[in-house]
Amino acid sequence: MKNLKVLKFGGTSLRTRFDKKKIIEVIAKERENGNDIIIVVSAVGRLGDPYSTDTLLRHIKYSEVSSREIALISSCGEIISSVILSSHLNKNGFKSIALTGGEAGIITSNNYLDSTILNIDGERIRSSINEGFIPIITGFQGNTELGNVTLLSRGGSDVTAAALSSFLHANQLDIYTDVPGIMTTDPKVLNSAKTLKHLNYHLALEIADNGGKVIHPEAIRWAEKNNIKIKIKTLKGKTETTISQYGDHSITPGKIVCVTSYDMDEKRQKVTIIGNDLNQNKELHSYISHYDMNIQSLSFFQDKIELVLPKTNATKCLKNFHDNFI
């Protein structure tokens, strides 16, 4: 294989004719640049779309089927995506082949609904590429050593893509999603959110582990272990986040890079302030001490500060920290 890149397309990147046209343009450019490529796909769309995982699961009652059968029906969305995209590529002059996780050689643990990748036998993928095909791999799934279908955790298509990048020694992993990279906060909460253009693995993992929804944390761990550069981007623009061992040298000690939030229960939300050595940001500590936000608990760490608040206060709190310190 020549220079190898893994491209992962999320479910929202496969929904429309415009999206599929853009994917063809991406693939054509990668080929022009002399790259061999592997594609990983998620199920198309979200709940309500015909073949999304959540929509498929509405056809069953959990009490009436086994975990193995839940894994089977849940794996169908990615299989459908892979065949649809393969058909589209073939129509546009590219040779492609759709492969399930098991067919691609992904071996997992025996936990049907929350498995981990143990090994990848990449021989079928390599031979497909050598024969001129573009392998399109179903994300989020693999097979046990006995051949049973298993699922990775939610968001597991990112993990599939990162693990394939690691085992097959890819030069880069590009993740296409519905937002232009990792942002300073959730753009659905604050429209003033900005894209973080460069992050090191450590800060990217802090964001992913604390409510950031753009990339699965385990994908970052795979990439860091094997020093694989990740680019997170959208089909609709050129803005992107690059994750690597270097990051952004302008993120000096004390600087805040991101504010995240997620629900703890029906009444409480956790807001997490993430940055570089926040112990050195005296202004931030003073602000927390004097500003009345009805904080129920507060935890300080070197690169993050966690605040637990009533849901009614959380969005205002997040906005205050974002607008005053980022």
From TrEMBL:
EC id: 2.7.2.4
Coiled coil start-end: none
The UniProt record lists the keyword Transit peptide: no
One Pfam family in the UniProt entry: AA_kinase
Catalytic reaction list: L-aspartate + ATP = 4-phospho-L-aspartate + ADP
Limits of the Aspartate/glutamate/uridylate kinase domain: 4-233
Gene Ontology molecular-function annotations: aspartate kinase activity; ATP binding
PROSITE patterns assigned to the protein according to its UniProt record, in alphabetical order: ASPARTOKINASE
Domain of life of the source: Bacteria
Annotated family: Belongs to the aspartokinase family.
PANTHER family named among the record's database cross-references: ASPARTATE KINASE (PTHR21499), ASPARTOKINASE (PTHR21499:SF3)
Protein name in UniProt: aspartate kinase
Species assigned in the record: Sediminibacillus albus
